[in-house]
Design goal:
This protein is α/β, with parallel strands linked by helices. 56% of the residues lie in helices and 13% in strands. The strands form 2 sheets. A 6-stranded parallel β-sheet has the order 7-6-5-8-9-10. It is elongated, with a radius of gyration of 33 Å. The relative contact order is 0.08.
Length: 427
């Protein structure tokens, strides 16, 4: 059995190639079924995201690796070798390390991002639903899940924000601490503000107001995050409520003016306002920074934080890699041990079954000849016991003669079990 990982990602293939081999969940399910029905793999999982498509599998035979690559081209109706310049493949230990790196976010476009772990769990669950996971990949992915948890617990790989949206919310939390009593006013309803809104919701923000030029779009986002929507011209009526203002509208000119903020501050009676302008051009007039009780940050301030945090994640990534190296070696050691012992177990069971079959045939023959049933059963039990004990007893005698004490101790564990438990005495 051969463990294999292969695929394309954002580092090896442009977006048009990644789009070409992107699996929808339905496609992934049918593809895994097809791979098994073609007897190319024993087990498989397909991961497909915007940044990567990867297949994790155990091969039926060595020749199947090339056949899978041919199948992949056929599945997406691609000319032969179209993907060859972009594909990477890893085997055995390197395959395990690669999957652990992917799941931990070390192989992501944004170092340490946590979303990929959820996507891997979705792929694992889909493979379970398809019936394409058995002992090896089940054990591997349980080991991977534990490893990712250790990486997240023991390193700072995911603790430092590396996106503008997350950095803005993190700064807000640093300023106020608990956000459950705070009100946030968000300017805009685009992708960046949606991320800000989601992060604020996860941080248990007390109240969310979404202000946007198109009220319908603001309503849609507000429903998603549990806030309420207003139009831009309604901002002066609500600005005094806002402890936090975050802007990202894409407007060519400032949305929030100094003349609007001054009366709002008076209504707030010197309670501070925390503002983050992540728009380019700016949404919040720069002169607002001059006002007392206003703390204004721009996108440039956030970029400094992001760059510092990227360096922090790079350091954490080195620590994470050490954990991954150890855990990958640990899994491969377990897998190798299992692969060594399974043939022994199978052979031992087969020999035992052969002994049982011979003994049963002899016993049934004796019964057909009219022998006493009780005597036949006793003889059957004695024959089975003697034949099953013959080989291990003979080997143990020889081990004693040869002074192989380690083998004798191992035999105790195998044949008797827990040797620390004292024997029961009968009264």
């Amino acid at each position: 059995m051969k463990l294999l990982t292969f695929g394309v990602n954002h580092e090896t293939a442009p977006v048009d190639i990644r789009e070409t081999v992107s699996f929808s969940p339905d496609q992934a399910q049918s593809a895994m079924t097809e791979l098994k029905n073609l007897h190319l793999v024993s087990e498989c999982i397909i991961l497909s995201t915007c940044n990567r498509t990867e297949i994790y599998c155990t091969l039926k035979a060595e020749r199947c690796e090339q056949q899978i690559l041919e199948w992949l081209h056929q599945f997406f109706k691609l000319p032969d070798s179209t993907l060859t310049p972009f594909l990477y493949r890893h085997q055995s230990l390197e395959a395990v390390k690669h999957i652990m790196q992917v799941a931990s976010g070390l192989n992501s476009l944004v170092l340490g991002e946590p979303q990929i772990f959820g996507q891997i769990k979705d792929a694992y669950n889909l493979a379970h639903k398809t019936g394409s996971i058995h002992h090896t990949l089940e054990n591997l992915f349980q080991h991977i899940f534990r490893t990712v948890k250790q990486v997240r617990t023991d390193t700072a790989i995911g603790s430092s924000p590396v996106s503008v949206a997350f950095s803005a919310v993190t700064l807000s939390k640093q300023f106020f601490g608990d956000l459950s009593e705070q009100t946030a006013l968000l300017l805009g309803a685009g992708e960046t503000i949606e991320l800000v809104a989601r992060h604020l919701k996860e941080s248990h923000i007390g109240k969310l107001i979404i202000a946007n030029r198109t009220l319908e779009r603001a309503h849609n986002l507000a429903e998603l995050v549990g806030g309420y929507a207003i139009e831009l011209d309604e901002i002066p009526d609500h600005l005094h409520e806002a402890d936090i203002v975050i802007g990202s509208t894409g407007s060519p000119s400032a949305i929030l003016k100094k003349a609007q903020v001054e009366p709002a501050l008076k209504k707030r009676k010197n309670r501070p306002m925390f503002m983050v302008d992540i728009a380019v051009p700016r949404d919040i007039e720069s002169s607002i920074e001059q006002l007392e009780d206003v703390y204004l940050y721009t996108v440039d301030d956030l970029h400094e934080i992001i760059e510092d945090n990227k360096q922090s994640r790079q350091t954490a990534a080195l620590e994470a890699q050490e954990i991954i190296d150890l855990q990958a070696q640990s899994f491969m050691a377990q897998l190798n041990a299992i692969q060594q012992v399974n043939p022994v177990i199978q052979q031992y069971r087969q020999e035992s079954m052969n002994i049982k079959q011979q003994a049963m045939e002899q016993a049934l023959h004796q019964l057909e000849l009219g022998a006493d049933a009780e005597e036949v059963v006793k003889k059957l039990a004695n024959q089975l016991t003697n034949k099953l004990l013959h080989t291990p007893t003979k080997q143990l005698h020889q081990a004693g003669l040869d002074g192989q004490s380690a083998l004798i101790e191992t035999a105790k564990t195998l044949l008797i079990g827990d040797t620390q438990t004292p024997p029961k005495t009968t009264k």
